[in-house]
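FAQ: What does the model actually see?

It sees only this:
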Amino acid sequence: MRGWIVLRRADWRAAWIGGRLQLSLSVRPRHASLSGTILYWPVSINEVLVFIADLHEFPSGHSPVPDGELYIVRGALVGRGVLPDGVVLRAIGWLGDNVPRVGDTAAQCIARLVDAHDRGFVFKDHSRGWHSCEVCERLGVDTHVYHEVHWADRTLQLYGHGHFIVLAKRRLLRRRVAYMFPALLLHYLLVHHYRPPDEFVTAVLVGQFLNEDSLRLVDAEPLP
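And it is asked to produce this:
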């Protein structure tokens, strides 16, 4: 699938590798600003390398997507979907082509993530295309639109499109923390043995998975 990639000029680079364009986006550590030039580039979605450091905290008011805006429809209105008041957004599992920590993840956490997948809590990326595992690509493993994973007696077909958000139960300095992670996280956990930060595991175990119905609608206008 081809489409427009929208990147902010944080830390990005482009290079021809193996006869195709590779873009790499690296977001700076927590509290860094994402302001700057926006780059629009027509490229195959599955060829874009996306890395966001674990626990990177997005600026206050950031849309519940990695970049850009999320537009939702409520009845006869359309507008931007934003997180509930007082919620800060942190990134988890946007690995690029490298696994930063290896280890086992609690079975209860995996079970909760599988349940969120089954119940359709994924936020759609709409026209942003699909994404394949960059770690597999670096290792020379063939990648596809769907990534098969096995858990207990289950076989899941993970579609590399969209992301999930889980809202921690515990407040941090009167704030609620939400963690945004890619749709392929279970693949990273079960195949590449990526170990996410402990605070994220706790949020998955006792927190609340969000969907578009959990968002506030702002800047609403009547549907045409």
